[in-house]
Amino acid sequence: MVLTTTEPASDVRESEATRLSTAPLARSGWRHLTSMRTALLLLTLLALAAIPGTLLPQRGLNPVKVDAFLANHPHLGPFLDHLSLFDVFAAPWFAAIYLLLFISLIGCLVPRIRLHARALRKAPPPTPRHLDRLPVNETWSSGLAVDDVVANACSALRRHRWRTEVRTEPDGGVSVAAEKGYLRETGNLVFHVSLVVLLAGIALGGLFGYKGTVLVVQGQGFANVRSSYDIFEPSRLYSDSQLSPFSFTLRQFKATYEASGEPRSFDALVDYQAQPGAATSTHDVRVNHPLAASGANVYLIGHGYALHIQVRSPSGRLVFDSDTPFLPDDGMFASHGVVKVPNGLPHQLGLTGFFYPTFETTPLGPRSSFPAARNPVLSLAAWRGDLGLDSGVPQSVYDLPVASLHHLANRQLSPGQSWRLPDGTTVRFAGVDQWATFQVAHDPGKKVVLVAAILVIAGLLGSLRVRRRRFWLRATPVDDGDGARRSVVTAAGLPRTDPDGFRQEFDSLVQRMKD
Question: Residue 355 contacts by C-beta under 8 Å, 6 or more apart in sequence?
C-alpha cells in the first residue's frame, strides 16, 4: 500500500502567487543594487562613514586618547561609544556599507566587462551615407586611384593606432571606417575592478589580520604574545598561531620640538630579536618608518613621560620602586598619573599626581609651557585607605577611588627630592623617563592593496587622458573620359569627447592622406 499526500489546490495557488509576486521585486532590488548610481551612493556613504574615524580617537590607534575623551566627556563619550564611533572601521554598520558596496560594484562591473569584451572584437561602425552632414568633414579630389587612396588612408591611420575596416560600396567606391580610444573604457574598467580588488585586500586584512597596542617604558621590553598587549584586536578568523615570536626592548626614546612647542621628530630606538635566541639588531622606529617584524609592522603612535618614584616605609625599607606612566592632558604634555602601594606599609597608600615637564606658575594655576622636560615638577597628593585592589572588581591603573580614602597631604617635588609623610613614609621623585606607545599590526592584504592602488591610479589616468573618436573616409572613382584614374575623397570624424581638440587631429590626418 502506498500512502500519498496531496497539497490543497488553494495552498498551491497561494504559493505560486507568492513566488510570482516576489520574483519581480527581487529582480528590481538586484537591478537597483547593481546600478552604478547605487555604487556611487554607497561609495559616498562609505566616505562619510569614515569621517568620524578621522575626527575622533580610535581604540585601535590610540586607546589612551579614547580613555581621556571618555573621561572628559562623561555624557557624550558613552553615547558615541554606543554608536561604535571609537571603533568606526570595526563597527557593524560600517561593515554593512562595505559589503553592499562590494556586491554593488561586482554586480555592475560584470555586464560592463562582457559588453566591452564584445566591443573590442567588433569592427568599427559602418561609414555613414552622408559624411558631409557630420560636424567635422572635408572633401577633396585626388589624382590617385581608389585603392591607392584607401591604402594611404589605412597606413596613416594605423601608424597612429587606429583600428580600421575597409568596405566596398555598392557604387564602386571604397570606404574606411576607423575608431580609436578603446583604452578609455578599458581604463575605466581597470579603475573599478582595481577598486573591488582594493576592497577585497582591505577585507582580507580585516578577516585574517590583527592589531595590538602596547605601552613600553624606556628600558623595558615587549614580547609578541597576546597577554603582553594593553589592547588587542583580533580579526574574525584570527588564531594565536599567527603571532610570530619576536621581541624588542625600548632602549631610548627621543622627541624634539620647535620653539613654539610643536613636535618636530620622534625616534624610538629599539633592540629587536626575530625569535628567542636570535641575533639582536637595532632599529630606529619613527613616524611612517615602522619596524618590519616577521610579517607584522611595529608603528610608533604615541609617547609620554614615566616618572621614577620610590616609596620607603617608616623603617626605611624600599616597598615601591617603579617607573609609572603618566598620561598627557594637553599639547605641552602636562600629565596625570596614579601610584598605588598596596603592600609593605601599615596601611595602603595611593598617590595622585600632576606632572609638568616645564613648570610655570600662572594666575590660573600651574601649567607646562613646553613639552620637553626643561623644568620638571611633580605635584603629588597622598591618600590613605582601602584602594579596592582586593575587591575583585577591575579598575584602571590611572584611577584612584579618592572618595573613599583619607587625604594626607600635598607636595611639589623636583627630580631627586624626597617627601616625608606624617606617618614616616618617604616618597622620592627619583627621575624622569619616557614611554612610547607602539601598535603591532599584521595585515596579509597589504600587498594586494598596494597593487590595487597602483592599478586604480593607472586606470584613472587612462580613463581621463584617452579620448574616444571615430573617423570615416569614402573614396569614389571619377571618370573624366581621358582614362585617368582619379578619385573624390570625403572624410569625416566624430569625437566622443573633446570636440575642440579633435578638429586639429582631424586636419592633421587629412593632410597626411593628401600628401
Answer: 305, 307, 326, 334, 335, 336, 337, 376, 377, 378, 379
Say if residue 158 is in the same domain as residue 273.
no
Q: How far apart are CA 82 and CA 95, in angstroms?
A: 16
Same domain for 330 and 375, yes or no, is yes
Q: Which residue has the cell 616577521?
A: 294
Whether 45 is in a domain gets the answer yes
User: Could you give the CA distance from residue 413 to residue 377 in angstroms, rounded to a whole number?
Assistant: 6
Is the domain of 312 the same as that of 348?
A: yes
Which residue range is the domain that position 136 belongs to?
125-181+467-514
Q: Are 381 and 332 in contact (CB under 8 A)?
A: no
pLDDT digits 0-9 by tens, 31-88: 888 887 888 898 889 889 889 888 888 876 677 788 888 888 888 988 988 888 888 8
pLDDT digits (tens, 9 = 90+) for 199-225: 888 888 878 888 889 999 999 999 999
Could you tell me if 245 and 440 are in contact, meaning their C-beta atoms sit under 8 angstroms apart? no
Whether 2 maps to a domain, the answer reads no
> Where do the DSSP E strands lie in 313-457?
318-328, 335-341, 349-356, 359-362, 365-368, 377-384, 406-413, 418-420, 426-442
Global model pTM greater than 0.90:
no
